[in-house]
Amino acid sequence: MKLLIILTALSLTSLNSTSAHPKAPQTCNSPECQLQSKSLLSKIDTSASPCDDFYQFACGNYKDIGSPMIDQATNIDRWILKLATDPLRKHDGKLVKLIKIFYMSCLNNRGSLNDFIEDGTSMRRKVGTDGDYENFEEAIQELQFSQNSDAYIFSMRMEFVDEQALLVVDQPKFETKAGFVDRKNDKVQEFNRNFINYLVEEGFDQKEVEDMQVKAFKFENKLLELIDESSSEAKIEVIKISELQEVFNFINWTNFIENFFNGSEKIDETFVLGVKNRAAMMKIDNFLLTRSDDDVLDYLLWRYIEALYISLFYKHDDEESAEKLYFDSVNPNCNRKAVCTSCICKLKKELDVAVAAVYSKHSLTQTDRQEVTNMIIAMKSQLQDTFKTLDWLDSKTRAAVSVKLSKMKFFVGYPDLLVNEQFLSEYYRDLHVSKHSLVQNIDQIARLKNKNQRKFLTSPKVNKEVLFTIMTAQYIITPNALYTYHFNYFLICAGLIHSNTFSTDRPQAMNFGATGYAIGHEIFHGFDNQGRLYDENGSARNWWEKGTEKKFLEKSKCFVDQYGSYVEPTTGMRINGAKNLGENIADNGGLMLAYNTFQKVQEFDPILPNANFTSNQLFWLSMAQFYCSNKSYEGMKHQIECDPHTPGRFRVFGTLGNLEEFSDDFQCPAGSKMNRIDKCKIW
Hints:
By secondary structure, the chain is mostly helical. It has helices spanning 9-14, 31-43, 54-59, 68-85, 94-107, 123-126, 136-145, 186-201, 206-226, 241-247, 253-260, 278-288, 293-311, 322-329, 343-350, 352-363, 366-389, 395-407, 421-427, 438-458, 464-476, 508-525, 546-564, 581-598, 615-625, 633-642, 648-657, 660-666, and strands spanning 155-161, 164-170, 236-240, 272-276, 409-413, 481-484, 489-493.
């Protein structure tokens, strides 16, 4: 059902008016509504009471392994696979050709490490202690950032901070944490044996590689002990390179940054960059200062060779390959980055902008984009009205939140720039890939990305939308949404706008309960415990009056205590209400905002056939079924330990239990499990 909104405050108000003789809601009997009804009813557990456990009621009969969102991610991968495996045609555009040729290079890959490391009898001959680098920093640059991999003794990436593009130095990220610790793990041992055997087959000396492996294990174990795993919310400090030299003295940062710019920029002590997790970085620096340059380079060389080996899998898409099982079985590290063992994963990672651009052009209609845009505009207008009613806000802070919301920019599906032919042509102008060499392709793409980063870092005025487009491309092909503090932008990804969450041919109650909830969630990240510390331009600044800030913190503590009281039944683990605070604030505020906005249009909304639910009840069910899932013990344990999001059951249980409107719509008595007496609310 199309959203009938005239975008003025007056007409939004008029939509909420009711006649003296309200009409009974119409039933939608279209094929799409029939399918939606069947899907919704198939998940519901009618033996459960919606007032005792609404998650069980909404999702109790959901039997699939995974979740609807995982199913959508799989559907996206299938679409990309079909595109990538379609034969090359003369009329294919450059992006499609890049995608197809890169994928062929992955499937056809039979490369040898000796193609990349000359004189394989000694791993140190080409790189490492026998390398021909001009300085130690050049060697680190080559070994850490080759193959588009993340760093191993520190990480460095571009971020947008205080209206400027900056290089940000941070603690390292690893694919695994316990892979080198739990050496008794069968899968770990199998992977390590395969790796050593492969190197020996390639002509490397067995004793040398075994010795290097043992040293690498010990070296990385120490690094892992020093990493701060609670660092996801750490702020970026903007400092001069001279100060960074004091924090992380192990290398000469002037040499390193000049190498990064390929000598095109002269770096002096006033050069500004960012640092994150300063305390952990200083601990890592102290450790590295106790090791020789040769020890560090040998460790980096080992990791470099390992990255090449992963890129040279023969069984790229074999889900049961030893390497895949290894990465799945080791104890997860909350600071880890994802490991790509399949060609589809490599394609999405390396050619993220190209894949996102092609997918975006074909996945969304302009009608769908406009309908979601209408929802967002209506929700922003509704929130402005809500801000006026909050008695705990002082006038100055109220004006500030209003300005921030007004300036909050949004993108539906994708930024328009992503499908701009001129932008895409310029971005990939210098990239040429070959079907014969996966690793060389990855190397060329890494160099291209670094070159494009350097353009931003040396530009006196950064085009925020261009930077945002590049930085978010990898997310567009996921069923997700995101808000960025430093931009004050949010994106509803193309991968999220699909039949499980949005359709113009189903009741708006369902669209607002799913997509509208996601929209509200992202908007409120601008006003959660972290987002509130950034202003309307995305600059880190505390613009809160002290008394109002104190009230915000008091209200936040209610959420910390509420969610911290929940115990997940599969693992017996308690939810960390402090770690998940930002997401829980966004859930509660976002869902209430979606509901209030829906009330402005619900008079025109039909109901589903064969489902004895009102429009308002369909809203709540659509939100809850967003989180239907069946996770393994290990998957749930990892989420509780590492993910800032509360498990789905408690996102439903906690959020709906705080909302009086839910209890009214399902007639839940006060004090029932889904109608908490002590409700938490900020916005």
